[in-house]
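Researcher: Hi, I'm a grad student and pretty new to this. My advisor asked me to get structures for two proteins we've been looking at. I'm not sure of the right format, so I'll just paste the first sequence and hope you can take it from there.
Model: That works fine. Here's the first sequence with its structure tokens right after it:
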Amino acid sequence: MTLPEWLVKEIDGVGDHAAFAGVDELHRGLHTLAAGYREITTLQRVGTSRHGEPLLCLTIEGAPGDPTGLVFGLPHPNEPIGGLTALHLASRLCADPGLRTRLRHRWRIIACIDPDGLRLNEGWLAGPFTREHYARHFYRPAGPDQVEWTFPLDYKDAYFDAALPETQALMRLIDSDRPDLVCSLHNGELGGVYYYLSRAEPALHRRLREVPGHVGLPLDRGEPEAPYIVRLDDAVFQGSSIRGAYDYLTGRGEPWTNAAGDSTASYAGRYGALTLVTELPYWTSEAADDDSPAGTGYASALAAHANALKGLSSLMEDTIAAVRDDLMVPDSPFWRASRSFAGMMASAARGARHRSTLPDTDREATVAEVASLAEDTHSFRLRYGGILLRALDGEVAVGNTRPAVRAARDRVASQHAEWLAEDRSIGDYRTIPIRQLVATQYGAVIAAAEHVASAVAG
């Protein structure tokens, strides 16, 4: 199968970007489109963020009876590709009646669902796009502060009902519109392109797998994000509910300690929506889609990953314990995230260690598997070690000169510098131009929309 001409034209028409967009630029973009296309658009405030930012949704009308598509960027605020994708999608739909007719949807487009979190990432959005600059300005919220993972959950003894204001805004839209298609615009960090779908759609799988290759990006054939994730196809995974994680962990005898809730896909699934999650990296390498034997045992690669994550979690837990009684801003977003990810990394280390002992891991690993495990090690160290360092820098910035805080800051900064040096020693990461990232994500969204419209039409 080759991509149809109309889809190729749309993908190739995505322009260059020198930087990712911050909150103000994304909001200006929606306002500009609403002002320029009043006859087919409505811009409304659908909610308010925890820090008082408006949550803006652009509606682009379709024909009576058309399916509804809900598209939102920044479900995790460290993933800014989706903001540009949402703006490009909205711009093309407004400007091209033929595209609107082909895709046959009523559209609800939110360029940024987590403006508070995006503002805490704005230090790296304009580059330079080095691993160090990214890590030192990186922020990802604690689990209970993530829009994507704070939908209601009531499963066995796992219960969550503290949906964030941003999540509640999405819930209201989903409940009122009952969308046929939901696109949660995520992205990863290293490796290749992969997708989550809330249900198997084989014809769409083929189209999604072809889009990255047209743009010049590899599919990701390495490790799935978690061992319980179901692979539907090459680089296409089942994305539904956190219930799978619960069953996997408790089935191994581990307690359920996740303090967050369920996902967009789970909530929208009650209305039969097809949810698409696109995952794209900022950096890639030749190993991302290399299925050849690595000459390394899979079990030993998992064990090495487990050891590295244990070292990371120990540093985070020990640091948090050492300064707990000396903090001036203990509830800052950076401390909340640090506490959350310390526990998450400890759990991930136990999981990787357990998997390394299973009979089915006693085999040779592929190049992609070894690379993805190593990349995850480096990514988690730089990300979460960087957030911890920002938490300590924040203490110093507000005048906390207590010895425990200063000593912890020096210790974490030294370790983070060592991890950066290890990451630089790999040397084969390629920074992906932003245009390729937006083009891939945009192509996936409109391919899914055409697929859904065709299915609804029968």
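Researcher: Oh nice, that was easy. Here's the second one.
Model: And its structure:
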Amino acid sequence: MTKNIRTYLALVFALYALSCKKAEFGDGVVLITGTEVTPIVKFAVENTPSEYNVTATTTFRATEDMQVSFALDTAAVAGYNKEHNTIYFAVPTAAIDVTNLETVIKAGSSTSTPVSVKVISTSPLVDGRSYLIPLKIKSVNGGGMNVLESGRTIFLRIARIINFPALSMNNAQGATTGTPGTRGRFNATYLFNPGDAVSLPNFTFEIKNLVYSFRGGDGNSNPQPIQTLMSWSDQSEATSIGLRYGELGNPNNSLQLIGALGSAFAYNFNANQWYTISLAYDGAKLIMYVDGNKVAEKTGSTVMQFSRLTFGQMWGGYDTRQYFNGRIAECRVWSRALTASEIKLNLCGADPNADGLLAYWKLNEGAGHIFYNSSTAGAKYDMDWSKVWWDQAGSGTLLQADKSSYVTWTNDALNKCSQ
């Protein structure tokens, strides 16, 4: 059976090579192990140094020793980005150590000795950037086999395991529903300077969030099943885009898009799991993504005059009845519609200098009550939670409030992200 499988794989590789005019039918080929389906391979890095061994593979056993030389090829990253419309960065050389570039496939074997690739430091890596280590087969001597071009280069994608502080929205560090009237007091609106309002005919709004538990009950319950997450809007909320879990009549672990373009839903969220929600609008349609995967779409026309951000439900009484029982991080406003591939590259963080990144609150301060903007727009988008607004009476009149005492930070095993 094993022999038949190997023969079949050899035939597949040979046919592929023939289609690329790199080998004749039945010829053996050499490729980098792991590139059979995609040249990008995940390299998980939680601590440094972390090591990944790269080898070459032949589709037939070598009849003699084969010398396989490898080399770093940083220019290949730009070529990959151009071909696939991605935004990867070549890893800084100070972050890695690559040894044993001269390898051998012994006669009778089909796998080479390994090239050692180590990430020795993450300090040179910029938060929010996705890095590739591009390694290629430079030459092969002996054995009479050509290199399969689609498998000549491997891109090791550094997947950093990042631990981060996060902001609690239920005024507690633990998973609790609390006593009615005590949760949700964090909820409020922050009004930016009206003179800094930005017209957004295209946009992407993002928030990373984790729900401790989804509530039961009905509209008469206190608290209700509804957990209001947040909204982006203009100063007067004439145009608003928001998110909330557990809309009445729907599963309590469903997420609802509400606001200017109508309603849409995403379903089947798990408790105690982080999700990045992205709302990308291109001027004609809004696509709702969960971790970069499309889950819903709404068509329509709107222009957001962004000048206001609200965490939770800030109407009097509803702040506690519809409080969000969980944590948030990585809140962003973009002036363009991101693609799915761009969103997936930013799940753990975005490059503060990225094109179109208008405002970016990492919400990872870990202490204090000021949420700092990390984008190039600077301090004008900082949010001081001692100077927020809420509608205490539910009458439509905003009152200024100091809610700094309700800011609570979390930093535990739940707060991990693999970039």
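Researcher: Is there anything I should tell my advisor about the second?
Model: You could mention this: The helical segments are 2-19, 75-84, 318-321, 340-345.
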